[in-house]
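Bug #2210: token dump truncated for TolC family protein?
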Amino acid sequence: MRRFITAVSFAVAVPYAASSQTHLERYVEFGLGNNESVKQQQFILEKNLYALKEAKSLFFPTVSFNSTYTLAGGGRTVDIPIGDLMNPVYATLNQLTASNNFPQVKNQSVLLNPDNFYDARLHTIYPIINAELNYNKKIKGQQYDLQKTEIGIYKRELAKDIKIAYYNYLKATQAIRIYESALSLVKENERINTSLFNNEKVNRTSVIRSTNEVTKINAQLNTEKQTQENAKAYFNFLLNQPLNSAILADSLAAIPDINILSDTAVNRREELLKLNTASAISENLVGLANSYKRPKLNSFLDVGSQGFDFKVNSNTRYYFLGLSLEYNIFSGGKNKHKVKQAEADLNNIKAQTSYVSQQLALQVKISANTFKAAVINYQAALSQVDASEKYYRDMLRLYKEGSALFIELLDAQNQLVSAQLQANISLYDTWIRQSEIERANAGLLIK
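Reproduced locally. Full output below:
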């Protein structure tokens, strides 16, 4: 009897004693770094980082190599009457010099499309004034920050899930111990009643009832073992490790520190930071939409060689430098409509921020009230355990003296087991509620 009381009285401890959670802290840290969903979010963050680098690279010159080669025949021509212009002159010169040093030439017809012509050049473009590039870089940087915040939200939720799964596993583990102790006790009752029946001290009913109790506790024990296995599998799933991996258990003999109720702030919540970042992005989108009012100025430079028959010499080499200016004058109101859309999105995010802030404050309040209720339930469960232990000891003494029926002893025993199970549930419920408060006020430090 004393061994049974000791085994199931785990909850009778100093209610507010400090409790080390070294194993749980390590599990949370491991889970945040090893969970597959977190890894997926990290890949998205990496993608946003490269998008930011791409936006920054747009401010640098763009250099490309371009080349063309053309063959042409027929089509439009340019007629040059060089023969009509020069032949009379050449004829006069031949008469004056009494020679044929100045031959007659034909009129020329030159194709507009160059034949056997190549053009190879390095083409460089450098933006000098472009508001769109500035806003694009700002937006990409904020989107990168937004994804980091998104990872923080997921990690915080994952940390809560890991803790709750851990507490559920410990709850099931402790319940198994209670059922195992109860099983030892009912088996001892069965042995005693069988002996008494063989000595004609009790009737067969006591033996049958004892056997039924053994069967019932066995069934409850097996059910709780399945619950423990499911809790273990889910916990290991969150950590991304084999589902049957052993779990190191911390000793939680008392409820969490009730001072956690004093922290009701929500300004650390990543959800608010996310909305603030989204609002900043929307403001830049408004600026991007308004950038049509500003001119765009680009410079360009071509350095290359062009000529016929693939000849390269001092006459074929060239450079071409210039500036291009673009300014929007009329677009049918398209740009103004884009600005209005961006402004509507910005106003929507501002309204959503106020609403979410109230939601988060409500979540903290509800979590705090639920934690208070869990503490009250736990303290009530301790009183029930104490009363049930006294009642069971009294019934056991009376039964041994022959002043109480076995059914009365059995009732006292069931009350004690039920009270201990309820105390077990109530204890871990306080820790689960503490995890919910920690999630609501962003009290856990996420690395």
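Output looks complete on our side. The CA atoms of residues 144 and 214 lie 61 Å apart. Marking as cannot-reproduce; reopen if the truncation happens again.
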